[in-house]
Amino acid sequence: MTEGLFPRAFIKREQANLGDQWPEFEAAHKLPAPVSIRMNPAKSKIAPAVHRVPWSTYGFYLESRPSFTMDPTFHGGRYYVQEASSMFLEQALAQLTDSTTSLTVLDLCAAPGGKSTHLLSLIGKDSLLVSNEVIQSRTAILSENIQKWGHSNVVVTNNDPKDFQRLPGFFDVIAIDAPCSGEGLFRKDPNALKGWSEEVVSLCSRRQRRILNDIWPALKTGGLVIYSTCTYSSEENEENLRWLSGQYQVEPLTLKVKSEWGVHTINDESMSGYRFFPHRVRGEGFFLSAFRKLDQQPEHGLYSKTRLQEPGKKITDEVQQWVLKPEEKSFILHNDQVRLLPKKRMPELQAIVKNLRIILAGTAIATIKHEKLIPKHAFALSVDINRDAFQVIALDHDLAIDYLRKGVLTLNLSKRGFALVTFDDVALGWVNVLENRINNLYPSDWRIRMS
Ligand code: SAM
Questions:
Q1: Which pLDDT tens digit goes with each residue over 95-108?
Q2: DSSP 321
Q3: Catalytic positions
Q4: Rounded to the nearest whole angstrom, what is the distance from the C-alpha of residue 176 to the centroid of ligand 1?
Q5: Which residue segments constitute the domains of the chain, with CATH numbers given?
């Protein structure tokens, strides 16, 4: 049953929590949600002329919501549309890890990919991200967003948290952006409000404990867990983390937070938590807390008999011309596809491939057909592509939209073969220039359907 904007039980609880801030909290829900994007530093030259999200290097507010669909650079992965509060993940990673070391990072609840794409911009190129989503149907959008971001040091998996127990002590960092009751999205998403009930809150809380418990063995001794939700209920936040401290040996970690950010800090001996309220920050509701694991955890030995197959010399020589810094990469052959992976992380990749359900690993470069290489779409979007190896066709806005609609392109080109299509220096995909026509190779599933 609802009263005004919110369900009655929610009002009762939050009025008690917020006290005299309640009217401000309620009033904030009558205002439009701020619009923010996070730039891909590997694909953006100029920061847009808008305001910075204070806790994120790459986050910016926009004054209004443009049609992202009609911006070709959005499809090319120049930025990700992300709610500002959740960009606070950056502070946990930046303040609690050493950016000069290579990390093995798990994003356990990853779809549609907001935190994973952010993590890819924050970790070094020798670090490895496993971006996992348990719900299979959600891995398609996750894979799409990961491919648009363009990094090869990432594996997308489709596993239940307990499957990661096959990799004990494997990860340096585990981000758990847990499925939650979504109270922090009440302003942005009316469905979050419709689906809310006290039963949902306690169901989510029980599920979150199960996730924390199941994933715990996969974290190294001394490893970092970054737990977040987009909800306010303490049952899903503080209470779960106090429960975690009771179950395991953990060190609660604190973050430096500037007072002008408006973040509410919760501190006691068992945990530190950071809560974002829409009446105090320019963003939606969010919660984050970080812990270090102190329990002694035996580690996965990394030895695996599974050897990933490499392509023959002729193919390897050819693809080496296609990528920047080929000496830092490994080329792998899988089902007639050549993939690009970070050379230094092959032992971990072999262990991952052996133990998890892989949706995508690294960047697909090309399919081998009759000994010829047909470039893959993901490779066009890759930050590792050597553009000098290809014909590059710079399109204007209208032609770029035609291309993204998978329309017919009529261009006067003399050079035949595969060519990279760009807009404003952002690669969008491939075309194949034939004698009498141009084949548009944009993936059908990704094409713009809006009229
Ligand atoms: N991190 C994502 C981002 O930034 O784009 C959002 C993640 S969303 C808050 C939570 C995710 O957890 C959903 O994709 C959902 O499918 C997944 N999930 C649902 N039940 C789960 C479970 N039992 N274990 C792990 N993940 C689960």
A1: 999 988 999 999 99
A2: H
A3: 230
A4: 8
A5: 85-293 (3.40.50.150), 307-388 (3.10.450.720), 390-451 (3.10.450.720)
What are residue 370's phi and psi, to 5 degrees? 45, 45
- 225-241 pLDDT, tens digit per residue, is 999 999 999 999 999 99
Residues 224, 420: Cα–Cα separation, whole Å: 40
Q: Identify the CA nearest to 152 among candidates 317, 429, 316, 338.
A: 338
User: Which residue has its alpha carbon closest to ligand 1 atom 8?
Assistant: 179
Side-by-side strand order, sheet with 329-334 = 329-334, 337-342, 363-369, 372-375
Match 């009751």 to its residue by tokens: 181
**Alpha carbons 392 and 421: distance in angstroms, whole number:** 6
* Strand, coil or helix: 16: helix
> Is pTM beyond 0.90 here?
yes
111 Cα: distance to centroid of ligand 1 (angstroms)? 6
pLDDT digits (tens, 9 = 90+) for 379-397: 999 999 999 999 999 999 9
Pocket of ligand 1 (CB under 6 A): 109-115, 133-135, 138, 161, 177, 179, 207, 211
Report the separation in Å between the CA atom of 114 and the middle of ligand 1, taken as the mean of its atom positions.
11
> Residue 143 class from Cβ within 10 Å (0-12 exposed, 13-18 middle, 19+ buried)?
buried
pLDDT of residue 3: 47
What is the rounded distance in angstroms from the CA atom of residue 386 to the CA atom of residue 199? 53
Residue 1 has pLDDT above 60, yes or no: no
Ligand 1: nearest atom to the Cα of 210: 23
Give one DSSP letter per residue of 224-284, joined into a string: EEEEEES---GGGTHHHHHHHHHHS-EEEE-----GGG-PEEEEETTEEEEEE-TTTSSS-
Radius of gyration of the chain (CA): 23
Q: Which of 107, 134, 237 to mutate to test the pocket of ligand 1 (most atoms within 8 A of CB)?
A: 134
